[in-house]
Design a protein that fits this description.
By secondary structure, the protein is of the alpha/beta class. It has helices spanning 4-39, 42-63, 71-97, 103-129, 135-188, 200-214, 216-227, 267-279, 298-303, 319-327, 329-334, 351-357, 375-378, 383-392, 410-421, 467-473, 495-506, and strands at 231-237, 242-248, 251-256, 259-263, 287-293, 309-316, 344-348, 362-368, 393-402, 426-434, 438-446. It is elongated, with a radius of gyration of 28 Å.
């Protein structure tokens, strides 16, 4: 039978383990998501992060055997060290990524350090808690709370911390929690070798993270300025992505998760070639058009130039993009208030989910999705997704999708084309030079072949698209011509590997 005081200490140490496990998982998720944001390919980044983290935990557990005394004191100092390391990790990685190629090494270093410290904690606590009860009960309690903490961290990060605080502030707040826990335990628990000087390190670390938290907004803005050459006029973390709008003179640029979406100096080339070749094939007297993605309203702007368009539905995943495109004065000028047009209906929804529930038939469907840089986006270029698109097309309907660069990501471009040919009667690949992007490709597909004759009476106000341009765009030189590739499916998503391989060699 242990004394009430000892029982209270035991509960405090077990609570510390639970919170430490929660914090450790959050650090792991923060660093994995940061690597994905900066480098792309979440499957690879999370796999590497988790692998290094688990290995480091094992190394920490092994190294703990060489610590023979002052176990509680060592645990508390490790808690404080874990807090300061995890707390500054995102700041350091963001800073060094902007001007050096050593991000991989630094990322691995932080993951390793955090993993080793987390691995140290369980063996230390098991040994420290043996004085409060038999080993069997201690081990089961420690492991149970460790797993529960891991579950709590894996839920708290994506549902609460990341959407509301972002990576930088999340890492700081979790670090402060680690250190604050160590400070409380140092004051409450009696342990061998306890002295007032023990509080100096955690107090200094807590003070540093508090300063970083207070100035987190200014620091985040300064880090963003290092990543973007132009002045940042809008920056917000939405539920789905990081939205940044920059300006250099009259040139505005939109970035989503660090990837350029358009530059006003040349976006008309991209959007005219995305929209008007497909619309020119539609013979319906009152055209109905569905735009998937393109919440910035620029594709919709081009669609509404055609006086024969009677109705346009624009489905965009992120409500924050829609709000920006509707209310930001610069954006409204760029998209010519297309989202406020009486012919337009804007729907905040996932494109896949929308198509599954859709019963309407459209004369033309336009996909303006991000590049297939990971497995999640790659699903929007699969046979299964294109079958849903085909079902939503009217007879003789036309579908077009942006398809990345046939020069820089040659395999990826022709993979999209080959995948479309599994579903549609006729597919027309074409490409155009957009200065901000380089050589850029599109694939146009006809529901029921053969391809209808185009009516060459383009709407007024176009700067680039015409009959001759489109004829030239359908020819590919030898370095970007068709090559054998596999088809992209839900079960075998090969597209994003083609894409990453292509752009890796293009850099």
């Amino acid at each position: 039978m242990i004394s009430p005081g000892a029982a209270a200490e035991q509960k405090l140490l077990l609570l510390a383990l639970f919170l430490s496990s929660l914090c450790g998982i959050v650090y792991e998720l923060v660093l994995g998501s940061l690597a994905t944001y900066l480098l792309g390919n979440p499957v690879v980044q999370y796999s590497i992060t988790i692998g290094i983290f688990l290995f480091s935990m094992g190394a920490g557990s092994y190294l703990s055997r060489f610590l023979a005394r002052d176990l509680v004191r060592a645990f508390l100092f490790i808690e404080a060290a874990l807090g300061i390391t995890g707390g500054i990790s995102v700041l350091c990685l963001n800073y060094f990524f902007s001007f050096t190629a050593s991000f991989y090494a630094l990322h691995a270093l932080f993951v390793t350090a955090i993993g080793v410290m987390v691995g140290f904690e369980i063996p230390l606590l098991v040994r420290a808690l043996r004085r409060y009860g038999e080993l069997r009960a201690v081990v089961s309690s420690v492991l149970a709370l460790d797993y529960l903490g891991g579950l709590a961290g894996s839920l708290v990060f994506p549902l609460l911390l990341f959407p509301h605080l972002g990576r930088f502030l999340t890492s700081i707040i979790i670090g402060m929690a680690n250190i604050a826990l160590a400070v409380v335990l140092m004051r409450v628990i009696d342990y061998p070798g306890k002295r007032r000087a023990d509080l100096l390190f955690p107090a200094a670390a807590l003070a540093l993270l508090t300063v970083l938290a207070v100035f987190s907004g200014e620091i985040s803005h300064a880090l963003q300025r290092r990543l973007y050459l132009d002045d940042i006029v809008f920056s917000k973390r939405s539920k789905f992505q990081e939205i940044v709008l920059t300006r250099a003179g009259d040139d505005f640029r939109l970035y989503l998760d660090g990837s350029l979406q358009f530059a006003t100096s040349d976006e008309y080339r991209y959007h005219e070639m995305l929209v008007h070749p497909a619309l020119s094939l539609v013979r319906a007297p009152s055209k109905s058009v569905l735009i998937l993605g393109g919440g910035d309203g620029l594709a919709l702007r081009e669609v509404l130039r055609d006086p024969a368009v009677g109705r346009a539905v624009n489905v965009e995943l992120d409500p924050e993009i829609i709000a920006l495109a509707k209310s930001n004065a610069s954006f409204v000028k760029i998209n010519q208030a297309s989202l406020h047009d009486a012919r337009a209906q804007v729907v905040a929804s996932d494109a896949y989910r929308y198509l599954v529930g859709n019963t309407e038939r459209f004369d033309c469907i336009i996909a303006d999705f991000p590049d297939p840089h990971d497995e999640t986006v790659s699903k929007l270029y699969t046979v299964e997704f294109f079958l849903l698109v085909r079902r939503a097309l009217a007879r003789e309907g036309v579908f077009v999708t942006q398809s990345t660069s046939p020069l820089s990501a040659r395999e990826a471009f022709w993979c999209v084309s080959a995948t479309l040919r599994e579903v549609f009667a006729e597919v027309i690949p074409y490409h155009v030079y957009v200065p901000s992007f380089g050589d850029w490709g599109f694939n146009l597909a006809v529901r029921d072949g053969p391809c209808p004759e185009a009516h060459w009476d383009p709407p007024a106000g176009l700067k680039f698209f015409n009959r001759e341009i489109f004829a030239i765009a359908r020819h590919f030189p030898g370095d970007s011509s068709e090559i054998p590739v596999r088809v992209n499916t839900f079960d075998r998503p090969v597209l994003y590997t083609y894409y990453l391989r292509g752009w890796k060699y293009a850099e």
